[in-house]
Structure formats: C-alpha cells, structure tokens
Amino acid sequence: MDKKRNLTPLYLLINILILALIILLNPELKNIDDILSLIDYKWVILSIGFMFIFWFFDTVIISYIMDLTLNKKIGFFNTFTINMIGRYYSSLIPLGGGQTAQIVYLTKWNISPGTSSSMLMIKYWVHQMALAIYAIFAFLLKGSAIKIHRSYMFWAAIFGFAVNIMGPFLLYLLSSKEGLLHKIVIGIINFLKNKGIVKKEEKFSRKIIDFIDDYSRAVKFTNDNIKGLKWPLILSFFQVAVFYSIPYLIYKGCSLSKAGIIDMMLTNIFLHFAVCFVPTPGAAGASEGGFFSLFSLYFPEDLILVAMIFWRFISFYLTVIIGGAMVFIEKFREKNRKKV
C-alpha cells in the first residue's frame, strides 16, 4: 500500500494532464471567457453543496454499519476521515486502493483488518444494491434512446453493469453456501496447473484463495447483520440521487431547462457504468469523453466544454482536494498522538 500511496501524485498528474489536453484541444476553448460570464453560479455552489451532502450520507452510513456490526462508535469526524481517505485513494489508485487505506486507518481504532474488510464490504454492497436499482430504471427509461444515439456507450454500460454488479452478486450467491466458492476456485487452480498455465502455483493460488476466504467471511458477516441494513440502503438511495443529479444543477446553471432532473440523473448513471471498468486513475480520459458523448444530447455545443469542466471538478477533483486534506490532517494528528 505504501508503494501505491507514493504513486498518488503521479496518478493525479495523469488526470490533470488528460483534462488539460481535452480542454486545450477543444475548439470551444476560445469562447470560454464569454460562456463563464453567463453562468448562474448559485447552481454551481448548490452542486458543490450536493457533494458535501453526498459525503455526509457516506459518513452516516459507515457510522451506522460500524455501530450495527461492531457496536462501536469513533465519532463523526473520525468516521468522516475514514470516508474521505477512502474516497481520496479510490479516486487516484485503481483496484481497491481506497478500501486498503481505510483498513489501515481502522487498525488505529483496534479494529482487525478482517473485521474492517467485512464491514467495508457491507458498505460497498449496500451502495451497489442502491445503484443497481437505479441502473435498472436507467436501462428501462433511457436505454433505447441512448442505444439509438450513442450505441457504443450503451454497450459499454451493459458491460460495466455486468462487471460491477452481476459479477459481485454472483460471487455473493456462491459464497453464501459455505465452502462452495473455495472448492470452485481450488478446482480452477488445479485445472490451470494441469494445463501448465499456472507456473507459480503456490504464490498465485495463495493470493486467490486468501481473497476468496476474505470475501466469504464478508458474506457471512453481511448475512449475520442483514436485517439491520434497511436504513443504510435507504440512505444509499438518497446518496446516489444526490451525486448523480450534479450534471442537472450545472445544466440549470447554464440557463437551460428542456431536460428534467430524472433524465440527467439516469444518463449520469449510464455514464458511470460505461467508464467504471476503465483502469486509469479516476477513469481519466474515459470520464471526460463519456460526458461529451452522452451529455451533448442535452447541452448545446458551445456549453458542453464548460459543463464538463464544472462536472469533473465538482464530482472528482473536489473529492481529491478534500480527501487529500484529510490525509494530511490525519498524518498531523498521528504525529501528535505519537508525541503524547
């Protein structure tokens, strides 16, 4: 994890360079001063407020799940710190960087890595469940239109949905029957070994088996506490709605009114699934390009660049800024604790 953390400035630089390149190559850049002067900034401020509401819901959900599963509270500020540290590293480090950082932080509160991993997995599943329900409505209500106008984004979203929702759900079902997933994985590893595909059997199999065992423990942890997850799920519905409505607020800030908030929100969910499997930090490049592709259905050509800049800053870079600040604050607090 320390090695990955050391690379976060590089990941951030990659994001900034990609965004700068997209802006500089856009022909509408020459008109950006005129467009910015016409923006109604109260909507932009409101969209920033929506991000803080989104983080607030995140903090409340983590706090509730921690109290439910561990009967433990560590205070709102510390829970907010856990959330933002996770958001920061998730934004810049692909493939689980955020959850790893949160597990390290939770050990300072005498919460074992196995327990914290299970707790955070519950949080992830609750969020994905809420997002999946919204995604179903997105496919039903917006799917045909997006398939007609942007077929490549439609199929990318289908693939992203399969990877991010159906894959984990299938693993969840297999893990619910104790030992079944473990046996399946062992069988696959032995098959690959016999075919000569797996060379470093011990190292490869150990990593996979450890992951499956951790996953199975998280499933059991979830099933044991599933009755109490009603409120986190309800809060996650509101949280998803708040985050994915941000393009609509920017749309209103551009003095546009033809599209409704539901259309914009469901289109943003399409965008999420269409780029979520891209392995670049923060899905850099794909996120900006996807926004241009999908939201040009709503924004006129002269406004789409400014809309993308506002959306990307508020939904991504603001998280990096606040999350980075919380990482710095936590390091400062840790030094003070060591002195005491």
Properties at a glance:
340 residues, mainly alpha, 15 helices, globular
Fold and architecture overview:
The protein is mainly α and 340 residues long. It has one domain (2-339). Helix content is 80%, strand content 0%. It contains 15 helices and no strands. The radius of gyration is 21 Å and the shape is globular. The mean pLDDT is 84.
Tell me the layout of helices and strands.
Blueprint (H helix, E strand, L loop, with lengths): L1 H5 L1 H18 L6 H7 L2 H30 L5 H17 L4 H10 L6 H37 L1 H26 L3 H15 L6 H24 L5 H15 L1 H8 L7 H15 L10 H10 L8 H36 L1
Helix pairs in contact: 4-5, 4-7, 4-11, 4-12, 4-15, 5-6, 5-15, 6-7, 7-8, 7-10, 7-11, 7-13, 8-10, 8-13, 9-10, 12-13, 12-15, 13-14, 14-15
Rg result: 21 Å
Summed over residues and divided by their number, the pLDDT gives a mean of 84
Number of H/I helices: 15
Helix content: over 70%
Instruction: Classify the oligomer.
Output: single chain
Query: Span from first to last CA?
Result: 27 Å
**What is the number of beta strands?**
0
Strand content: under 5%
Question: Which residues sit in consecutive blocks of at least 5 with pLDDT less than 50?
Answer: none
Overall structural class, as computed from helix and strand content, comes to mainly alpha
Q: Sheet with the most strands?
A: none
Cα shape: globular
SSE series: HHHHHHHHHHHHHHH
What's the structural domain tally?
Answer: 1
